[in-house]
Amino acid sequence: MSTRSTTSPRPRRASRRSRSWTRTTRACESTRRPCWAAWPFRQVSLGCGSPVTTRALQLSCRSPAPASTGGGEALTSCHSPDPNVPNVVVTGLTLVCSSAPGPLELDLTGDLESFKKQSFVLKEGVEYRIKISFRVNREIVSGMKYIQHTYRKGVKIDKTDYMVGSYGPRAEEYEFLTPVEEAPKGMLARGSYSIKSRFTDDDKTDHLSWEWNLTIKKDWKD
């Protein structure tokens, strides 16, 4: 009796397109990241816990979201204040130091010239941070920076640039904190310092410039 071959048919080869799609899908699964070639929308902070894209911000300002989605609260940031008000308003500078006996604050909405006649007292060797408070009123601002030049007896001894970032408009103030720094210490470090501060951005817009003084002492009330 003759026997019939029971060999299984050869599986069809996947097309080049399907193999390419499979590789792309596996790459996405392994990296846990979207596999698009380019993402043209810059991320900015709205102070809501996570960055959003400029495209998403534009859409949210144009079409209100239902209240049930929680979008109503986020849309309060897309306010349109007086067009005569600057887009970026720097409102205050604070030296954040846990061991300071009292607040070390500058109200930057008042008379900036008066700061030249005043001086912060900072105890030598303490750790502190600089906090800048500001508002963005109408348009997204990219690449904001806080620049600080420090002088002693008329000679510039230090220049520091802090990258603040990109922010969108909202009603509430933003706060930017610099990294922790240590005040200079020692007999030669004690004395008065003059500081020139500037808040700018990628377009080199000077949002605010001001001068203030800092005195390093052996103790807070020395």
Automatic annotation (TrEMBL):
It is found in: Cytoplasm. Transmembrane segments: none annotated. Residues 10-20 have a biased composition (Basic residues). GO terms for molecular function: GTPase activator activity; Rho GDP-dissociation inhibitor activity. One of its GO terms (cellular component) is immunological synapse. One of its GO terms (biological process) is regulation of synaptic vesicle cycle. The keyword Cytoplasm applies. Its main location: cytoplasm. Keywords: Acetylation, Cytoplasm, GTPase activation, Isopeptide bond, Ubl conjugation. The keyword Transmembrane helix does not apply. InterPro entries: Ig_E-set, Rho_GDI, RhoGDI_dom_sf. Coiled coil: none annotated. Gene3D superfamilies: Coagulation Factor XIII, subunit A, domain 1. Residues 1-25 are annotated as: Disordered. Controls Rho proteins homeostasis. Regulates the GDP/GTP exchange reaction of the Rho proteins by inhibiting the dissociation of GDP from them, and the subsequent binding of GTP to them. Retains Rho proteins such as CDC42, RAC1 and RHOA in an inactive cytosolic pool, regulating their stability and protecting them from degradation. Actively involved in the recycling and distribution of activated Rho GTPases in the cell, mediates extraction from membranes of both inactive and activated molecules due its exceptionally high affinity for prenylated forms. Belongs to the Rho GDI family. Monomer. Interacts with FER. Interacts with PLXNB3. Forms a heterodimer with RAC1. Interacts with RHOA, the affinity is increased by three orders of magnitude when RHOA is prenylated. Interacts with PSMD10; the interaction increases ARHGDIA association with RHOA, leading to ARHGDIA-mediated inactivation of RHOA and ROCK and prolonged AKT activation. Interacts with KANK2; the interaction is direct and may regulate the interaction of ARHGDIA with RHOA, RAC1 and CDC42. Interacts with RHOC. Interacts with CDC42. Interacts with NGFR (via death domain); NGFR binding decreases the affinity for RHOA. PANTHER family: RHO GDP-DISSOCIATION INHIBITOR (PTHR10980), RHO GDP-DISSOCIATION INHIBITOR 1 (PTHR10980:SF9). This is Rho GDP-dissociation inhibitor 1. It comes from Macaca mulatta (Rhesus macaque).
